[in-house]
Amino acid sequence: MNIIVSTIGQGLIWAILGLGLFITFRILNFADMSVEGTFPLGAATAVALIHQGINPYLAMLAAFLTGSLAGMVTGLLYTKGNIPILLAGILTMTAIFSINLRILNGSNLSLLNQHTLLNSGIMKSLPPYFNTVLTGLLVIIILIGLLIYFLQSEFGQAFIATGDNPIMARSLGIKTDAMIILGLMLSNGLIAFGGALVAQNNGFADVNMGIGIIVIALASIIIGEVAFGNLNLNNRLVAIVVGSIMYRFVLLFVMQLGFAANDLNLLSAIVLALALLSPKFRHFFGFTRILKGVSRSHA
Amino acid sequence: MPNPILSIENLTTVVRKGTSSELQILKGINLDIFPGDFITLLGSNGAGKSTLLNVIAGNLTADTGTIKINAHDVTKQDETTRTKYISRVFQDPKLGTAPRLTVAENLLLAKKRGLKRTFLPRNLKRSLPEFKVLTKTTGNGLDQRLNTPTGDLSGGQRQALSFLMATLNNPTILLLDEHTAALDPKTSDQLMQLTDKTIQDNHLTALMITHRLEDALKYGNRLIALHDGQITLDVRDNEKASLTKADLLNYFATY
After folding, report:
1. Most buried residue, B29, B103, B136, B191, by most Cβ within 10 Å?
2. Which UniProt keywords are present, listed alphabetically (chain A) (predicted)?
3. Do A161 and B99 touch (CB under 8 A)?
4. What residue of A is the nearest CA neighbor of B100?
């Protein structure tokens, strides 16, 4: 029972990464590597501030801000500097590694005996792992609500159009460069926020915790899409959360098969690769027919 | 003559500047466009028609010369700022619409062309009745597909939608870049008729590139020909009406 609750909790808090990456990967239509740096940046920022006695809520707000600042750097390199987005992201990610070492004053920092979002107030009185589930659920609900409001606003629609057809967007007076920079700021801010939450849940921040993050975030997006097929934009956001939880259960399953924690990145990459390849397999296994059956019964 | 709505003086444009393939496309264009002008723009490939449209729209910058809209100098304004006055329909139906957004969503985006976009809800429902009436005018079933992503439409429907989007807010100047060229003859004629009717009904000022001499003669009140970056023919009203296809073929044969 505990392991199920813990897995759902993990899925919920890691879903923030999927939602953050969705903004760039699916709406703006490019893969942003800076998230591999902004995730530990958010963790480092929050953990270092909590160590200074700063309120965890403020520490998480600060994590969001440092993440979006890093996203702005990537955005400026890409739009104003004409550096290809993959390279721009890698430059930011590489630079952040040194910054994280400075913030943490070392390669990791523990939260032992510190007040965090997950061990203070009402969270203390919950049964084990329910604090993660409750925190994750609250954050996800607020986040999806805000994202839906944003994307359905006049401005949000212009943002979507930027990713969908930049030439058309400009011809309608939409400043696509500004939209792309803003999107990268929002995305990386959310990823850093997710990093701050994951660090509090784990009880430490580590400079290496960003390795493979883009794969995990993509996995929740892709698994959600493979499982539910065609959805409207609002439902796609919810599908990411379900995808993130499903991904955690897949990991739980393979870990039960006897793999070690050190194999995690290999397993993540394999899970994502299989999910990405699944359209190619559909004719062989009737795979999507089964999955479509599932999504139809949900609808 | 009233005051020109668009005034171009001594416009020159050089592309691939500083390279060995540097090329001057526009070589001193002078053009006054007056309110209500519907100009058909002819010229062989490489004459500079698309470049002229791009410089007016702001995608390309003028190297020398000035562009004024309603006596207001816009030469230095970027493309997005100029969308307050200028709208355009591209030749490629894919360029004019956002494929993952629905027909209604695309129209709603176009309704705010050149205007400030707020963080308030877009309120799509409120505009649906208006869009229903509007899309009926295309006569190709677009009104039945308001909630369809534009990527699923036919090329003709997509281009008709692009045209509706460009004319939705009565632009000061409408630029049409061979907007029917990618369509089959029947669909192309339909869109040309819609174009003509919309321009007449809303008293729009338009500049249309075309390669079809019949269209250039049949539509508009003014005909301009470009050759090698310069305007070599500019006829209007009665003089244009008396032009024939043979005249044009003769004219182009001399170049």
Report:
1. B103
2. Cell membrane, Membrane, Transmembrane, Transmembrane helix
3. no
4. A164
